[in-house]
TrEMBL record:
It comes from the Bacteria. Residues 20-274 form the Aminoglycoside phosphotransferase domain. This is Aminoglycoside phosphotransferase domain-containing protein. InterPro entries: Aminoglycoside_PTrfase, Kinase-like_dom_sf, Pseudomonas-type_ThrB. Coiled coil: none annotated.
Length: 349
């Protein structure tokens, strides 16, 4: 239940958003929608709203379209419900959400939007209050997966010694998950690239569904701002290209890295902001790296069964959905690796 802290919402209907993400509970408020209300996942501390406010105020001052937090009647950026959950309300930006890029023209527009965002925040002076250490530390995610894998093996061996039945679908899924985990870890050991770009202001989660588009396909603004932080550019754009250049979406076992979409996205970005030589070098392996990172995170949740949302209409459990996602992102990483030379050539133009 949305807390009664915003008088502007009183009397308005609320329903689950058509394009809710995997983490926060998201409602549209009003008909037609006027606001977005979200119950924020405990992963994000309330201080994240100070960061959202600082960045969106700055963007608005530069004339950029951006959703803005709606303050409570008492002037706060968020409020708690009776159960202690944190809620926020933001402006609703009319438009649509895409889960895959339908054409190079849309990719080019998305690339240009991200470059305009980066350009607008280049002079932002802000120390982020909500910091998630290691959020895109790929090596750390691999260590965590390896540790989870080791713990799972130890646990299963202990259950067998105690005579506990280890059969059933859950254990079959975990067994398949162990094989995928080993493949992910092996791919990371053989990945080649640099990891030393400086940090800059970034959105932090540029999957295509976090860009709001107009009905005609124009990229309007970035949404889902909980991940605002300082990251290297290769993390930011590697995550974008991992999402944008996969024409079949995350829930597929047959993804491919689409070079035509990639070329258009790069061209759009470069139409606004150039890459430095060291950025071009780091960006060549960025999409593969972030796909491996996300694959590792999905695979870890096969065993821990605690983080990502899942589709109960298509899968019997969160574990099964995450196993499916992990396989898909691993396949995408392999596709990007196979085209590494051509990716580098596009970046070198």
């Amino acid at each position: 239940m949305i807390p009664d802290a915003w008088s502007a919402l009183r009397g308005l209907s609320a329903r689950p958003a058509d394009d809710a993400g995997l983490i926060n509970t998201t409602l549209t408020v009003g008909e037609p929608p006027r606001y977005i209300a979200q119950r924020v996942h405990p992963l994000f501390a309330p201080s994240v709203h100070d960061d959202i406010e600082a960045v969106t105020v700055h963007l608005a001052s530069r004339g950029r379209v951006t959703p803005r937090l709606v303050r409570t009647d008492e002037g706060g950026l968020w409020a708690r419900d009776p159960e202690g959950g944190v809620w926020r309300v933001m402006d609703f930006i009319p438009g649509r959400t895409l889960h895959r890029i339908p054409s190079p023209a849309v990719a080019r527009d998305a690339g240009a939007l991200v470059a305009r965002f980066h350009e607008a925040v280049d002079d932002l002076v802000h120390d982020y209050r909500h910091v998630r250490p290691g959020a895109h530390d790929t090596g750390l995610h691999m260590q965590r997966l390896e540790g989870t894998l080791t713990q799972n093996v130890v646990t299963e061996e202990g259950r067998e010694r105690e005579g506990v039945d280890t059969g059933g679908r859950q254990n079959t899924v975990q067994g398949e998950g162990r094989a995928v985990a080993e493949a992910i870890l092996d791919a990371w050991r053989t990945w080649q690239g640099r990891l030393d770009l400086p940090e800059r202001h970034c959105h932090g989660d540029l999957k295509i569904s976090n860009i709001r588009f107009s009905a005609s396909g124009e990229a309007l603004c970035l949404v889902d701002l909980d991940t605002l932080a300082r990251y290297p550019l290769d993390v930011e754009l590697g995550d974008a290209w991992r999402s944008w250049c996969n024409p079949v979406g995350e829930d597929s076992l047959e993804p491919r890295f689409d070079l035509e979409i990639f070329e258009a996205a790069v061209a759009g970005y470069l139409s606004v902001r150039p890459f430095r030589p060291e950025e071009r070098e780091a960006l060549a392996g960025a999409a593969e790296r972030i796909a491996l990172e996300l694959s590792a995170r999905f695979c870890r949740d096969v065993f821990e069964d605690s983080y990502f949302g899942w589709d109960s209409r298509r899968f019997a459990s969160r574990r099964e959905h995450n196993l499916y996602r992990a396989r898909g992102q691993l396949a995408l990483a392999c596709s990007a690796r196979q085209q590494r030379q051509r990716i580098a050539e596009v970046l070198a133009r």
